[in-house]
Amino acid sequence: MSVKIRLMRVGKKKQPTYRVVVADSRSPRDGRFIEILGQYAPRSEPSVVNIDGERALAWIEKGAQPTEQVGKLLEISGVWEQYRAKHGAAAAAAPKARTAVAASNATAGATSEASE
């Protein structure tokens, strides 16, 4: 079972607020979730980000993968820095950067195989 930390949309039409939740990657955006970690209100000025850092850190250590937007929110709230301090900078590359490095490694491997 692949577990994601992602946003779940709540609120009225054209007035979104989001919950930061841990959910199975196969469940729909607003469907079943495992745990609520916090909330994100982008329409308020400044945007409100409330994340339970202790629980988010525990889920990341268990292998939950944050989405791109949640990764940015984790950086804002300071949870990502705690993870980086605990596990080292290489293991805690930013979520977007981690996928870009993996993609570049995959293309480098494909070009070396083609040249042989």
Summarize the structure.
The chain has one domain (3-111): 2-Layer Sandwich (S16 Ribosomal Protein, Chain: A). Helix content is 43%, strand content 28%. The protein has helices at 53-62, 68-77, 79-87, 95-115; strands at residues 3-12, 15-24, 35-41, 48-51, 65-66.
* Main sheet makeup: 5 strands, mixed
Structural class: alpha+beta
CATH class label: Alpha Beta
Report the principal-axis shape.
globular
Low-confidence stretches: none
Quickly count the helices: 4
Question: How much helicity do the residues have?
Answer: 40-55%
DSSP strand tally? 5
Name a few traits of the molecule.
28% strand; 5-stranded mixed beta sheet; 116 residues; alpha+beta
Describe the 3D structure.
The chain has 116 residues and is of the alpha+beta class. It has a single domain (3-111), classed as 2-Layer Sandwich (S16 Ribosomal Protein, Chain: A), CATH 3.30.1320.10. The protein has four helices and five strands. The chain has a five-stranded mixed beta sheet with strand order 4-3-2-1-5. Helix 1 (53-62) packs across helix 3. The protein is globular. The model has no long low-confidence stretch (mean pLDDT 81).
